[in-house]
Amino acid sequence: MQNESFKKYRPFQHAPQLTERQWPNRVLTTAPRWCSVDLRDGNQALAVPMNVSQKLELFQTLVKIGFKEIEVGFPSASNTEFTFNRRLIEEKRAPDDVWLQVLVQAREDLIERTVESLMGAKKVIIHMYNSTSPAQRRVVFGKSKDEIKAIAVKGAQMIKDRLPRLKGTEVMLQYSPESFSATEVEFAREISEAVMDVWQPTPERKVILNLPDTVEVAMPNVYADQIEWLCRHIKNRDSLVISLHTHNDRSTGVAATELGMLAGADRVEGTLFGNGERTGNLDIVTVALNLYMHGINPKLDFSNLNSIIDVYERCTGMTIPARQPYAGELVFTAFSGSHQDAIKKGLAEWADQKREHWDVPYLTIDPADIGREYREVIRVNSQSGKGGVAYLLESEFGISLPKDMQREFGPIANDAVDKLGREVSGAELKAMFWKEYIERTQPWELFGFKTESDNGKVRCAARIARHPGPVAVIAGEGNGPLAALVHGFSKMADVPRFEIAGYSEHALSAGEEASAIAYIQIKTSDGKIRWGAGVDTNIELASVKAVLSALNRL
User: Fold this and answer.
1) Is 442 left (phi over 0), alpha (psi -120 to 50) or beta?
2) Going from the N-terminus, what domains does the chain have, and what CATH number goes with each?
3) Model-level pTM greater than 0.90?
């Protein structure tokens, strides 16, 4: 950018003068009415729009999620849009409690075609709009405020005149002063009230007044002020459903929606994962799960989010970014070692049912609630710590490392991963562990081990080779097999004196031939400490192998 280029811009000009604003002190306690606009706003933003079959599949998914209001298209725009509408109605694909919303401009030919597309439907929302901002009035239409208002009033009347043709259909009317957020709030109120005068809403038969943030041109708090100002000043507020429709040009669509809800809105329009023109529409999944993480029932079911992603990507050709809130591949992962350790401890606390409410560090919700698995939570790369390494070994292979052993193996694994220069899988991590501990058979290798007991004393005879030498028998005695083995080694001049400083073991798998893994920490007389590990179907032999593993690592 050139040094002076910023001077061609100016601060937002149409912020309302709002005193004693109420929205900053409010708290959300219930979910809004939701309306999906995936099949219209989302569809028109695709390089290759969905065909009828794809729209049908996505519609069925939206119904399954729980949407009760779905904008199914712009039936006057094309034969594909009209045909899709007719199939939904004629094939009775919409449940009786789902409203089919259709979009139409305030033009007679388009309104006529739209009404034709709705014949025989159970519940419909006719959504009329026209642009109202100063730039639209000047650049697109070349009309005054009164002329723009006349377009809206005429359109509202044309719709009203055709309602008797929809006999047997429950109709709700909706009006959008398009580009509301860039419009003077006084004019937005004036044109909206003019439409209301035609449609005559009542508290029993409300009209939806949709207030779009069509292009984000101000901070989200300004949008909240605009919503609160209109809610305070518009007549017959109790006969209106105030609806929000935000876009994401400044990357604050979610914030604008949440603040707009605080400001008095009753309803939210958006798309799955924020698909839409330019930088996208509001991401309904994010707002719904933001409510969920605060203990509010969102009244939408995202318990199998992966399957919803599959349908979305198949129908739209779009992909979910790896860091997309809640839905992205990496949002429940942790590469940082300190994060991994905190997550591991938090999940363990939750598993032990020590807390009534979810409070796991770095995880805003339980991944299982949206169909994700704990094994996805922690992944390992060169930035990872012992916590992540230990978690993957335990969660994928049942290898539960003692805490001190985690501190020893973590840096070893990180060095190996650092050389690879990439993320590693659990299987690769297990192979590293096996190479470092289980497969350490030199210089000491075990060929046999026998014990006998007499009056509380245990004697052992271990057939061991020190490569490259021959197999020899090491004999010793103690109060147990390991103590006897340590005693046997103590009689050898070329082996440093050591003691068992730590011991742990557990089963690796179920069944008769189940393997056990033993972890042994030894400490030499000069203070050196090493861990070893051994695996065998016999826990005694696994422990002996673990001692040799530790010796081999000195």
Assistant:
1) beta
2) 29-316 (3.20.20.70), 337-435 (no CATH), 444-552 (3.30.160.270)
3) no
